[in-house]
Amino acid sequence: MTQALAERLAGVVGPDHVLVDPAVVEGYVRDWTGRWRGDCALVVRPADEGQTAAVLAEVAAAGLRVVVQGGNTGLVAGGVPEAGDVLLSTTRLTRIGPVNPVAGTVVAEAGVTLAALQDFLRPHGLELPVDLAARESCTVGGMAATNAGGIRVLQQGMMRSQVLSVDALTVDGRPLVRMHPLVKDNTGYSLSALLVGSEGTLGVITRLLLRVVARSASRAVVLLGLPGVQAAVDVLAEMRVRVPQLRAAELVDDACLRLVLAATGEPDPLPRRHPAHLVLELADGPAGLDRLLTALAGAGVTDDPLIDLAAADDAAGVRRLWGYRDRITESVSAFGVPHKFDLSVPAARTAEFVERCGALVREWPTRDPLSGRSPRPFFFGHLGDGNVHVNILDADPRDDALDDAVLTLAAQHDGSISAEHGIGRAKAHLLRLNRTGDEVAAMLAVKRALDPDGRLGRALLPFDGARRPG
Ligand code: FAD
Ligand code: MLT
Ligand code: ZN
């Protein structure tokens, strides 16, 4: 069956774009963290929407399951296929344009990376107002499918706020949604909005109409060293009121900073160690920095003997200070295979959650079988959105009970088990921690309406019993 299908698909996309060699396929069946590994029958890479539709029709005729993959930077194994699945890679859907400066929109195919889109928009003085450290590899289709957040949600919202409309296909290759090139269009249900955050389970997004904003030529950044997470929450509360134009407010705990220093060889940004750090950003280099420092002085931060501060308003300095936050994910992975969480908790409970979660991890009874060490927690994230990332090193990668304990603790703190990465396959069995039975039933009804045979994707809903990949 697979050989015959491979030949038919090669007739659609060309033989170079149907991959069956296990050594090549390996890169598509293992997730970015290295914790999850699946399998698949073949990888197919269509070059445009017509080919994508034809590929989906062929796979439907063969009765196989399809998993869509963009840059494979997802952190919850949503793009990890199982044996016998066809993996549809969007990486050749890379056309961009037109840009509409009056409407503030751009059209991009699903496989365009975030970095390529920003490069395209730069000469127009525009940018997509979503930024994340996976920018070189993650695709706009994957970002929409996961409703990615990143470091600018505070001011600009998540991908849901940027996706105005999409072109999408059903699992058997029929048109599902047609792009409407308008900023405002309330004609009935927004099927485009439904696909945002659907994690590749309802339709295959092939093209997007995205909201873009004026790109600020320069930025100002302040990195504060603080006595704890609660102090970071308190400073943020002041800064939100004093600086309404605040673009980012990111938390970095001491363990994360030490890890980044060890992985990158960068010097310590501050003269002393602090339990927590807050990275704040404003647009407009020197003027922005002036506003930030005035506001921090007004809030009593600059005079506080327990607080240290580093600041930059030039491009190189801004890049250097952001590096301490931006490079946490790669630094964590440099030291092992992490357990990763993207939780959100109410601001008032953030410090309490971090303390309890830290204790839970440090007292966890199992160890990493390879290193023999006990689990170590790292806390960072998008504090302005209440989004705390918990990463754990030196835990047994197969110890799913640790994941369940951390996620249950978040739910007990009135939090969400997924602030931004999605449910994927990693958390599908825990959906009920945050959603009622009625809500899950409604989600399943939508799924059945759009994909009655359950052949599209393996993420999100425990359609056939959630299974841990790999
Ligand atoms: P993939 O990993 O390929 O796929 C992700 C999911 O989307 C899968 O379920 C897949 O089936 C589905 N999918 C992909 N393309 C399509 C399509 N065209 N149509 C339908 N479904 C599709 N996330 C954040 O939200 N905020 C962050 O700050 C952030 N930082 C990150 C930093 C690093 C270093 C890394 C590695 C990841 C980070 N992420 C972050 C994770 C984030 O989910 C991804 O970076 C991005 O959104 C996924 O894009 P992708 O193209 O890699 O998708
Ligand atoms: C980030 O904000 O850097 C990523 O979403 C988090 C992660 O690597 O866990
Ligand atoms: Zn994040």
Automatic annotation (TrEMBL):
GO terms for biological process: respiratory electron transport chain. Keywords: FAD, Flavoprotein, Oxidoreductase. This is FAD/FMN-containing dehydrogenase. Its cofactor is FAD. It comes from the Bacteria. The keyword Flavoprotein applies. Belongs to the FAD-binding oxidoreductase/transferase type 4 family. The keyword Flavoprotein applies. InterPro entries: FAD-bd_oxidored_4_C (IPR004113), FAD-bd_PCMH (IPR016166), FAD-bd_PCMH-like_sf (IPR036318), FAD-bd_PCMH_sub1 (IPR016167), FAD-bd_PCMH_sub2 (IPR016169), FAD-linked_Oxase-like_C (IPR016164), FAD-oxidored/transferase_4 (IPR051264), Oxid_FAD_bind_N (IPR006094). GO terms for molecular function: FAD binding; oxidoreductase activity. Residues 36-215 form the FAD-binding PCMH-type domain.
